[in-house]
């Protein structure tokens, strides 16, 4: 004997308005009015109507194909499907097996006549339109959230989501250490063993721009509203790629040397005498910058430190630059704060107009959204100004630390007397980068402007051919 089926579906978005219990109750009432007995209920809770890959609907359709179902009762046709193609499939299946379809909202759906099939087609088109609009609105909302700096994914390692904002948690110092260790040349597994993360977590951290204070949508990155855990320099230093078959360099300046022409971190290569030279990773793919001796670049770093320590006028100029407001002074800050207050006051007046019935709801929504965007932009600019000021204060403090150390004694003697570990500590803490160009180099000390170093000052030659042993300053072949 054939049975009568009640089909109930709710997606996540439908839970409030169309609960399973409410649908089933209305469908049972309709079945009773239609004289339908021996009712079996099929429920898909939490499933979208975008396709028929749902457990309960599959079970029901299997019984339809087996000839066990006489009629199907639904709250509305779109409970069965929101896809027009699937709607045509269901219509044919029900007609082939002489199954009647009753809808609480739409009445009995005539599947056999042209007008009845047209009615179902219209319902299907509207259901498809609803689904497509929902997807489109969701994507628009996600993009707007990402562009305004909100993080719309699960909170990454080092952050906790609090009131829809990322806040650094107890793992944040470990994330910072991951970048520092990676920049020093350690592999992912060694870093994982050090900080207690998994290999994949460390690898993901090193390439995730969320730690620069950015938000993400797909492959696009935007300025975020959360605090960064590393600087751009720290992030870039950790992006040293590893070429299979080429050993990873343990050179003193590893991760600190950059090609001045294209800005990429240079990689160290070794010759048959175990002498290192740095080559731009883009060489041969658009960059013609010649390689440079690792020992020569180390001597350039020494010269840069020495020049900075001995030049009192240069130090005074740096202090003057770091003392200036990086964002235009307090007048600009006060002007932005006044603009934010003015926009918020306009929002209040707009709300009063809407409440009093002077403007329609759609006009209120459009104008209010526009004001929200302008306020969000100004607030984001204010937060960036504060970050810029904080960064300048940190840079000033870092420079004073460097200046105090350089003033202790002749830095050249300090460099020459230091052990390898001590030199590594000095370069990690005080040296930002060494950049090499075809005609000269620049040494970037933390908190200071670039210091130009000529090649002949350190026994190197300018030119187009990459060489390792230059000016007789490199160790001889053993």
Sum up the structure in keywords.
4-stranded mixed sheet; Rossmann fold; Hect, E3 ligase catalytic domain fold; single chain; 478 residues; 16 strands; 47% helix; alpha/beta
What does this molecule look like?
The chain has 14 helices and 16 strands. It has 478 residues and is an alpha/beta fold. The chain has a 5-stranded mixed β-sheet with strand order 2-1-3-4-5, with helices on both faces. A hairpin with a 3-residue loop joins β4 and β5. α3 packs antiparallel against α4 and α9 packs across α12.
Write the layout of secondary structure elements.
Layout: E1 3-10, H1 20-33, E2 39-45, H2 55-65, E3 69-74, H3 84-96, E4 100-103, E5 107-109, H4 114-147, E6 159-162, E7 165-168, H5 172-183, H6 188-195, H7 199-206, E8 214-217, E9 220-223, H8 232-237, E10 257-259, E11 266-270, E12 276-280, E13 292-293, H9 294-310, H10 312-323, H11 330-355, H12 361-408, H13 411-417, H14 420-430, E14 431-436, E15 440-445, E16 451-454
Parallel strand pairs: 1-2, 1-3, 3-4, 10-14
Antiparallel strand pairs: 4-5, 6-7, 8-9, 11-12, 12-13, 14-15, 15-16
Name the helicity range: 40-55%
Structural class: alpha/beta
CATH H-level homologous superfamily name of the domain at 3-145: Resolvase, N-terminal catalytic domain
Q: Which series of helices and strands comes N to C?
A: EHEHEHEEHEEHHHEEHEEEEHHHHHHEEE
Strand content: 15-25%
- Silhouette: elongated
Main sheet record: 5 strands, mixed
> What is the CATH topology descriptor of the domain at 3-145?
Rossmann fold
- Calculate the mean pLDDT score and round it: 78
- Count of helices? 14
The CATH class of the domain at 3-145 is identified as Alpha Beta
Separation of termini? 96 Å
